[in-house]
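Q: Entry one of two.
A:
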Amino acid sequence: MKPGVERDPGLQPERTLLSWQRMLILLAVVGLLYLRGPLEPGSSAVPEVAPALRVGVMAFTLMLGAALGLHLWWRWRSTGHGLRDPRTGQPPQNVASPWAMGLLSACVLALTVVVVTTVLVP
């Protein structure tokens, strides 16, 4: 970068917010596919999961997505669209708080364990 050229500080936080939004949309799509069940009704390749469990997993996925989406929206608004942290006056370290990233990782791991268990244990 040339000296004297100002960098636009709003691009990186905006790209990060967009990637979080894509991830939340993908989380909802995966939950809907799990709710749908097997792609071929009556197929014995993958055991059928009880509808109550599918609805529970989908509800959990939607609540996780809603909580993370609300957190991102609040954080985006409170930092002036990702430009300034009100506590320090500097650009924020992350669009999402570290606890949100940890929560997402833990919940995706838990959902993976549930899905693998329903496939392996009839």
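Q: Entry two of two.
A:
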Amino acid sequence: MMNAMLAALSWMDPPMRTSLLMLPLFSGLLAACAATPTPEPAPPVSCNIAPANAYVGKRADHGVTEAARKATGANSVRVLGPGDVATMDYRGDRLNIMVDGQRVITRLTCG
């Protein structure tokens, strides 16, 4: 088969012929390098908001926010006040504590 390919390409100069014959080899190598990365699995949902609802109306100091985090089973917590900027990524293992201007807890969510 290789002899037939060489005969069909005999009109080309040798460097071009070699380049053309090497093309399938390099294409295969490039395809092997371009493996699709697997996406990271989403963190397990481990935030149960019900036990933390008792903290609504309390001042969000460090002790209260940590106690609320532990009550929900969340791995992390963030406190968001009026006008605060927050990322829109969803994390099932994160407790979000919304507070008013006096840092009093108004609402709790997981995510």
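A: Comment on entry two: The longest strand covers residues 94-99. The domain at 50-110 is CATH 3.30.10.10 (Trypsin Inhibitor V; Chain A).
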